[in-house]
Amino acid sequence: MGRIRLLDDALVDQIAAGEVVERPASVVKELVENALDAEAGAITVEMVEGGRERIRVVDDGVGMDREDALMCVRRHATSKLRRFEDLGTLRTMGFRGEALASIASVSRFRLLTRQREAVAATEVRVEGGAAPVVRDAGAPPGTTVEVDELFFNVPARRKFLRARQTESHHIAETVLKAALAHPQIRFALTSNGRRIREYLPALGRLARAQAVFDDQKLVPIEASQDDVGVVAALGPPERARSGARHLYLFVNDRPVIDRALARAIAFSYGDRLAKGKYPAGVLFLSLPPGEVDVNAHPQKTEIRFARASRVLDAVTRLLTRELGTRRWAGGIEGTAAESSVRPAAKPAGPASSGGPAPSLRRDGFWSERLAAGPGTRTSTGAGGKKGGVDPTPPAAPSDPWGLGSALAGPTAPEATPEGPAGEDSPRDGAPRDGAVREKGPRYGASAAGSAGGEAARADAPIGDSAGPAARSGGASSESVPRGSAPPAEAPRPLGTPAPERAPEPAGPRLLACLDGDLWLGNDGAGLLVVDGTRLARALTLAAWPDEAALPSRRLLFPARVDLDAEDAARVESERDVLEALGLEVTAVGPTTFAIHTVPRAHPQVGGEPPAEAVLRAALGALAADADAPARRAAIAAALVPRARSEDAAALFPAAPAHPEAHRRTGYDELRAGFDEA
CB–CB of 405/421 below 8 Å? Predict the structure, then answer.
């Protein structure tokens, strides 16, 4: 006798159920999709103990007659397909004909359905894949499906179900996705007899999305390119979160999970979105049915595009245009289809240019500001030659941050229109009066005195110690007008030692704060460009002990935060871990918590700690099964969202010890860069 045998139908259904029915939320998804295909106007989902004990879905759709009610619980029985070619033109949510048979094989299943014109309803009961039992019953028009004791006959599957709060959260997310895609339908969700969510009919998908994300202002987007249509409602970049858990994607109204599409959305925000962050919101992608393969996975949450790069390129360009994003000055940037890494390696110019990418600064931008001293600018002199002097004062300060002296090096002389610092240019750093000083009368001396001074200076031997009055034709210091610069010091005779300069303060010196957390300084060896936010986070991480619990600070007033069901369950189950991370959290409601303590940042980092953001960052790291260093890094990033300019003076001296937070530029390298620009 052979060893290979055919499996009986009940065992086949139980095996197939492992692909279709993963958890209670999978059951809800299949039943809600059937209700949508039945043209329902109102759908109610009821669950008991997170769906482990009971799931009940009620709709007011078209219903079924007795024959269809018996047929629908058989495997591969469907009203939505007749031939293989129909897969390319599908517009219904379901089509495989496996869901009800798989659900009935691993639960105590009851179906009650009635068409509007029928006198009686039909009831079908199936227990653990056994033969169906059918009878007449009374019921309103529509269909009601009850699934009791899911996986009662497959204990190995039942024990892998998660906690009640976790399973409830997944069911709530399934109902939410259906409500977002179908705003004209009323959805209601109850848990253990208590209504927890209700979505009333809305005017459109954008209105439904704004009602769901009522805590932030979404940007509505409607655009199309060729046969790719995009309707989106996306949150602001400052409310972005790690991971795409709060970004809902739909393709032809079908909820999908597609990392490449999520990356394209994040890419469209440009540099306004930090790496690894995704906005909250909704995106609906409309494509011809033949361009999408929805039969890639039994749960229909994973799809394949016939031309994926074309779709991603269209999405990136449409969102970039509508969001007003420009990653680089001077033209259109690259797209997510060209690079899945969000921060582009280099700006891409227009396709027709073929030349180098446009410069972020116009030619001569830095040379105009650093080559000449304050109050001067070069122009085209007589005869068309450059190097003449324009006496018109500039409209704005030419060196607003005082970087000219720092970039010139520790001992570099100041440049003037007359050449290097010498007898005809002051070396004491006195401010000029805005007009260009030419050779001739100086410090109020007359023209005649100036001429005599020139002759005297020409005849004076080397080492002559005549003062400025003698060199300027006898003008004394009393002749210097008020507000003018004092006279230059006499030249030092040969052999006389140079006077000692006051020693420069040791350590890096802060020169300027740009845009809050970008700090510029000088430590004598070059220019330091410091990312203040990275420096503050690095100092915070370094201040925390390696193994012990994080130091915490108690809030004067506890911060209240509302979490979803999954995060609420994680707070309860990971309370000890959160306390080790410096977070003391207590429940004040089913999903509302009070935060009493938060981790302590570096002592020199000021500002109020964002308690809610820190807790969400910790929960996100726990959800991703991150290791201890990754958890601490996530908490530090939330604890210091952005460095403050008020803390720059205290934190800047520590920058050289943290190479991840600064860049050093030598003077020669910097000047070469200015020349190239």
Answer: no
Other Cβ atoms within 10 Å of 672 Cβ, number: 11
- In this model, does residue 219 exceed pLDDT 50? yes
Kindly state whether residues 195 and 227 are assigned to the same domain.
Answer: no
Residue 400's pLDDT band (cuts 50, 70, 90): very low
18 C-beta neighbours (distance < 10 Å), count:
13
Residue that the structure tokens 């507000």 belong to? 483
Q: Do 89 and 146 belong to one domain?
A: yes
* Residues sharing a CB contact under 8 Å with residue 3, sequence separation 6 or more, in sequence order: none
Write the DSSP assignment of 21-42 as a string of letters. Answer: -SSHHHHHHHHHHHHHHTT-SE
Take residue 486 and report the two structure tokens written for it: 């004092």
Q: What are the C-alpha distances in Å from 145 to residues 35, 59, 107, 188, 273?
A: 10, 9, 12, 15, 44
Give me the domain span that covers residue 265: 205-323
* CATH number of the domain enclosing 274: 3.30.230.10
Q: What is the 3-state secondary structure (H, E, C) of 371-432?
A: CCCCCCCEEECHHHCEEEECCCCCCCCCCCCCCHHHHCCCCCCCCECCECCCCCCCCCCCCC
Same structural domain for residues 209 and 69?
no
Q: What's the one-letter identity of residue 265? A: I
Tokens of 300: 């229909």
Residue 636 lies in a domain: yes
- 106: number of Cβ within 10 Å: 26
362, part of any domain: no
CATH label of the domain that carries residue 172: 3.30.565.10
590 token code pair: 């089913």
Residue 510 lies in a domain: no
Q: What percent of the chain has pLDDT over 70?
A: 66
Judgement on whether residues 177 and 229 belong to the same structural domain of the protein: no
- Total number of residues shown for the chain: 677
Residue 302 confidence (pLDDT): 77
162 & 258 share domain: no
Angstrom distance (rounded) from CA 19 to CA 503: 76
Q: Kindly tell me the burial class for residue 387, based on how many C-beta atoms sit within 10 Å of its own C-beta (0-12, 13-18, 19 or more).
A: exposed
Are 296 and 233 in the same domain? Answer: yes
How is residue 58 annotated by DSSP? E
Mean pLDDT of 144-172: 89
Beta strand extents in 545-675 (DSSP E only) = 552-562, 584-587, 592-599, 662-665
Same domain flag for 629 and 556: yes
DSSP state of 289: G
Q: How far apart are CA 331 and CA 320, in angstroms?
A: 12
Collect contacts of 565-569 with beta carbons under 8 A, ≥24 apart: 565/165, 565/166, 565/168, 565/169, 565/172, 565/591, 566/165, 566/166, 566/169, 566/170, 566/623, 567/616, 567/619, 567/623, 568/165, 568/593, 569/163, 569/164, 569/165, 569/166, 569/169
542-562 burial code (b ≥16 CB/10 A, e <16): ebbeeeeebebeebeebbebe
Structural domains in the chain (count): 3
Domain end call among 323, 348, 382: 323
